[in-house]
Structures are given as C-alpha cells and as structure tokens.
Design brief:
The protein has 281 residues and is of the alpha/beta class. It contains eight helices and eleven strands. α6 packs parallel to α7.
Length: 281
Amino acid sequence: MPRLLNADCHIHSEHSDGADGVFQMVEAGAKAGLDVMVMTDHLTLPYELDPTSDVSIPVAQLPFYRADVLAMDHLSRSKGGPEVLLGFECDWYPGCEGNIERWTVGAKVLLGSVHWVSGEGSEGWMDDDRDLHVWEELGADEVWRLYVDAWCRACESPANFDVMAHPDLARRFEAEGHAATIDLAPLYDRMAECAHDLGKRVELSTAGLRKPFHDYYPALALLERFRRAEVPITIGSDAHVAGDVAFGLADARRHAYEVGYRSQQVPHADGSWEECLLVEE
C-alpha cells in the first residue's frame, strides 16, 4: 500500500551557493516534519563557467561536503529525524559527463539542470539577476529555444540524471520584462516527449513561488503535458536558506493532485525510489 512521505528533494547549503550549513538545513527539515531530504549542492563547475566558485562546490571541498551530509544523516536518523541523502545538482554543458562521473562519487541523487545558454554572439548564465546580458542580447524567445535545446540534450546525456530540476527555468525573469512572445506549446510538447522517451523524472519546484512571477516550476501547461506523457515527478523547495526548507511542499502535492498526478517518487539511501501518495486517500 503506497504511503504519504513528506520529502524535499532539492536543497542547497553553504557548501555551494546556499547561506546555511548542512546542520541548519537538516534541523529545519526535522522541525518541518520531513521524512526524506536530499542535499543537492551545485556540483563543481569548470573554471570557465565558475572561476571564483561562487556557484558550485570547489573540487577540494567535495570530500568535506560528502562527510558533512553523511554525518548529518547518521545523526538525524539516530534522533528519529529525516533520512538525509547525498546528492548534487549537476549543470549540463557540452562535455560535462566526465566531470560528473568523476565528481559525484557516492551520490544517491543527481539532479540535471540547465543554467547556461550559448547562442549566436552571446552566452552566459540565464538565471543571474546581477547580469541579464543574454536576455538583452538574444531576446527571451531565443533564450527559450536555446534552453529547450540544451534541456533535451541534458535528458539524452549519458550522465543519466535521476531528475530534471525546475524544468522551465527560462521563466525566471518573465515578470521583469523578459517573457517569451512566441507560442511555447511546441517547446512544451518537445520537453514532455523528451522526458517520456528518455525515462526521466521531472521536478515540481516551489522555488518559483518565491520569485517575482510567483508560480511553480513548471508552469501549469507544461506540468499537464508531463502528466499526460506519464512522466513521474519529485517535489522540492530548492531551498538556499534554512527558512525555505520544505517551503510549500504540502500545497505542491495538492497542486499536482489537481493536475491529475496521484503519486510522487521519493528516493532512499539504499538507491531505491518509492512511489508515494500525494494526499491521503
């Protein structure tokens, strides 16, 4: 009989671009009544993408991140708290697979994501609110096309991501004047087809509710396409501070249920994935 688990499958700490330590994040998860939480700090990036390690874990710090998460899992479970899994959010970029294989030893969950876009005459981070040059130089429509191209290539990647995080991240600045003017339906259809055909899970993220556009990732129209394509979901807060751990998870489960989903998939430390109820039935 499936059970309902309170799981946050996307959490960052100060090891990458979060503000608080793993201890503080796990403490917050325990107070929020989480059963499972997955630490998914940003995996090490090449120098040309993150020269000062502002975003990702410096390679020399990877052993400390692993040890920190594993120690907190042991401590948490010894106190009846949540299961704490070691994971990474892995940026997809051409040729990333060797780095991902080398740097993710011991990880139980790999989130695949696309933050960097490269087009004719411009490239850069598409979600950096300090630098919007790719939006200004390429325009929102082209950023969307490039993003979906990269997203589908990430689905195809032999890195074999467990979950595709915040699938329509290209919405990030739509409330600041960078909304697409093209019909996104064909791009949504392509994403749903890629996820289905390549056996990917996708994330329902509450992070967008904390952004100016104030909505889930993915948008309703895209989530409905994933559901019709029978693409499984996970749910995560994408918390970068302790106060956001477990943010909006119960509402997100109800939202997915209203769209037609009846379950979410939850990972465990033994490598298994459990099909869990969204709401009590």
